[in-house]
Amino acid sequence: MKKPILAAALLLSLAAGPLASSPALAVGSETPSVQATDSSTPAAGTTTATAETDPATAPASEPTDPATGPAADPATEAVTAPATDPVTEPAAPEPPSDPPVTDPAVTDPSVADPADADPAPDPDPEFVTAGGIGAKWRSLGGAGGVLGEPTSNEQCSAGLCVQTFTGGSIYWTSKSGAHPVLLASGRTGPQWTASGGLAAFGYPIGDEIVLGSRSLQKFSTGKVIIWTGTRFLNFSTGTGIGSRWAASGAETVLGLPSAGETCGLRNGGCSQVFDRGTIYWSPQTGGQVIRGGIGSRWRAAGAQNGVLGYPTTTEACGQVAGGCLQRFQGGSIYWSPATGAWITRGGIGTRYILTGGNRSSLGYPVANEACGQAAGGCIQRFQGGTIYWSPLTPAWIVRAGIAQRYATNGGADGWLGYPTSNERCAGDQCIQSFQRGFIGYTKAAGTRAYGITECQKLNNGRSRYSTYGANRVLLTFTQGYGQSYATNVYCVRMAGTYVQDWRTDGYVGASGFKAPGVPSGPTRYLYSPTGSYSVTEAFGLGNPGTKLPYRTLNPRSRWGGNPWTATYNKYFESSSWVGWDENMWYFATRATHDYRQGVVINYNRPTIVQDAGFAIFLHMNKVPTAGCISLDDWAVVDYIRKSRPGDRIIMGTYGALFR
Question: How far is it, in rounded angstroms, from Cα 373 to Cα 68?
């Protein structure tokens, strides 16, 4: 309140005239302006005598209102003012006495009671905390926290801001936010300061993280200060191992390193152990994490010095059945809760991957490969089958019922040898080839092992005659021309592969086979034709159960043998028996029962060439014939029961049939 009063008095004095004649500033006045003047210093515009007037000896008078009090006479004042000779040596001034204590309320009625005055505002703080840094400081307890009072204002340069405090500093960037480095508290801050600070590590990109008795803090250069509980580790996420640690979840997943890197490993590699795994690095593979059951299996196999070498990927979990897998330079390790961890590698490992690995019907491996088998081979067992490998055969899978049949036949040590293909299925049939045979499966009959016979020539292109896709083919051959005794191999196609159903001897025409392309001629010459012929109908005294159209013979049953007649090489019925026609009833009912059961071989039909030959059948009574094929009764019946329209008979000498 004093400042407005003084200002008003100053304005009044200026309006009244020069300072010397201002009644408001006259000698003896007790205005605040006089009290504010240093009593030992002359005021500008006043004489020495006036300056030396002792307030204590001044005449006492009641304060008067400058507007109503007696006006001073300027002339008198001018004469009486120089009371002292200015030339005379002035006496030494007495020490100024204390100014009189006066009540402003008495001397100046306009001055209010100090009790009624507004309180003075608090002084502004010396340093300000604001923004992200201020928020971080307050979250750490402000002035009462670990950082204490600020010792500077925030300073920013090139996107980085910093503010210092008694207990450390807070650094801020728009990307990392605000993070402190503590000088006295924690572990990492003092180490940061002692080891080079900002120049050596960069600014913090995270707070110090405390993990039990250990802690870490990350910095902008990629370096990480780690306190292990016993010592400091200067770790960097810029190295091969460090970058993998960061990419793999850092301390959240792998935890902290328990020691520094170990280098000088095979092929220039390095490793570092963490709480929950180990990272291995090499120039060829980069850094990869090894841990858990897969890590244990890898170390048991010699780690980087074993057949697997270094890991080339990190462990990939979330596989089928809750499993995991990891690839290495020399193979893979698969793990599942049900099987544990096992290695797949080499030819067996390649076959496993091509099949679909753990997503296939094989499932997970249940053992490592076992080598030292017959012929230098190896095997490996899986949940859904076994893979076999040998130097002479690639790796192939044997599984399910075929695997059981294979085992009962001695497996790789048995007569079948190693597999030469995977199983192939079509409909309800499956087949698998081996070095010396096959194992087939049908839903109706189960599994069966087959040896390699002439049927294989129908598979490998060594037959000179086509099967035309027939499901069953009877191969009938002699060892040369002029021979009647024949070998008969009944081949069945399973899932596209012909295998031998049965094998028996028999006879063909008594004169043997005609050469390929040469008609067999009339039956009286006793020759059999060479070629591949379809089978479309059967005949006899009673249907044994067949899918072929079946003709039951009767006393009128005949087969035309007279060329240039309408019945040549056809079935017809007649009460007579004329010329070269055959009385089928007679041959079915005589003691040798040739036609008791038989099948028509479609030689020279349905397109008929006159006198080229007729009545070529497969029938009973195993003796040399007039051109037909004769077998034991059981073989004829079995053939009829299994045949379908479109089945074929390929007949001739061995050399004429096969390459």
Answer: 136
Is 369 within 8 Å of 345 (Cβ atoms)? Answer: yes
H helices of 478-608, where? 584-589
Instruction: Count other Cβ atoms within 10 Å, centred on residue 173.
Output: 17
Q: What is the DSSP string of 220-289?
A: TTSEEEEE-SSSEEEEETTSHHHHHHHHTTHHHHT--BSS--EE--GGG-EEEEETTEEEEEETTTEEEE
- Report in angstroms the alpha-carbon separations of 570 from 4, 280, 614: 147, 84, 8
454-482 per-position pLDDT tens digit: 999 999 999 999 999 999 999 999 999 99
Q: Indicate the residue type of 111.
A: V
Average pLDDT over residues 20-38: 34
Rounded Cα distance, 643 and 659, in Å: 27
Quick check: helix, strand or coil at residue 125? coil
- E strands, 291-400, in order: 324-328, 331-336, 340-344, 370-371, 378-382, 385-390, 393-398
Give the DSSP H/E element, type plus range, for residue 599: strand 597-601
Tell me the per-residue pLDDT of 541-580, one tens digit each, with 9 for 90 and over.
Answer: 999 999 999 999 999 999 999 999 999 999 999 999 999 9
pTM of this structure: 0.71
What is the DSSP track for 281-300? EETTTEEEEE-HHHHHHHHH
Strands (E), 405-528: 424-426, 429-434, 437-442, 446-451, 472-478, 485-494, 497-507
Q: Verify cis geometry, omega within 30 degrees of 0, for the bond prior to 606.
A: yes
Q: Determine the Cα–Cα distance for residues 561 and 559; give it in Å rounded to an integer.
A: 6
Give CA–CA dist 493/470, Å, rounded. 8
Distance CA 397, CA 386 (A): 6
CA dihedral (57, 61, 67, 73) in degrees, to 10, reads -60
- 8 A C-beta contact, residue 640 and residue 535: no
In angstroms, rounded to a whole number, what is the distance separating the alpha carbons of residues 59 and 51?
16
State the greatest distance between any 2 C-alpha atoms of the chain, in Å, as a whole number: 194
User: Which residue, chain included where needed, has tokens 């307890």?
Assistant: 141
Q: Could you tell me the two tokens for 478?
A: 């002699």
45: left (phi over 0), alpha (psi -120 to 50) or beta: left
CA distance 437 to 453: 9
Number of neighbours of residue 177 by Cβ within 10 angstroms: 16
Q: Poorest-confidence range of 114-123, 309-318, 500-509, 511-520?
A: 114-123
Residues forming a β-bridge with 389: 378
How many other CB atoms are there within 10 angstroms of residue 320's CB atom? Answer: 12
Distances 586 to 338, 351, 522, 583 between C-alpha atoms, Å: 72, 62, 20, 5
Rg of the chain (C-alpha set): 60
The residue behind tokens 């081949």 is: 491
- CA distances from residue 240 to 50, 247, 291, 390 in whole angstroms, order as listed: 91, 11, 18, 40
